[in-house]
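Appendix B, record 7
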Amino acid sequence: MPKDVPPRWDRRMQQRLARGEAAALGELYDRFASLVHSLAHRVLGDETAADRITREVFGYIWQNPDAYDPKQGSLRSWVARITQGHAVARLRQAELGRGSREELEQKVRRATAAARADYIVTSMPAPLRAALELAYFKRRDYRQAAADLRISEDEARRRLRLGLQLLSTANVLPQEDSAPPGYGPPGYGTPR
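Structure tokens (predicted):
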């Protein structure tokens, strides 16, 4: 299945979920379960907790399909936001009492930024991702990346610059309570 989900598919999927079609939930799970699990694992660092969050997220979606608003973004982004909200809430709950509030919030910010970076990389178009992977994992400069990708050096520079600009947004945290309604579990974005 293609990574870029057309908005029409998103609306149709929401309608199917709202009608209670179990097959729709299965299709949504097949498409987004690995995204949900990897984001949860990135925040929590625990396989069992990530499995639990995956079940919770799809349970939330099944019970609240009308919470998705196509005007606010793609279904994929909504699912990622719900996952992040659930995982951060679980991290806060697990870390409660293990240090100061500032230490906890710093850990939450680091985990959230790492999860956002993972999501950004997996969501970016394949040409940008390929250029970044060459630069990061294989330590290629833009000239070597251009040769490996069989593109011009200018195009390689453009792809790397754009990919890095997208990644730089991973450290930008949303303001408190800035998530639109339905884009996270109850209490998402509020201080604990």
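Remarks on this record: DSSP finds eight helices and no strands in the chain. Residues 175-192 have pLDDT under 50 and may be disordered.
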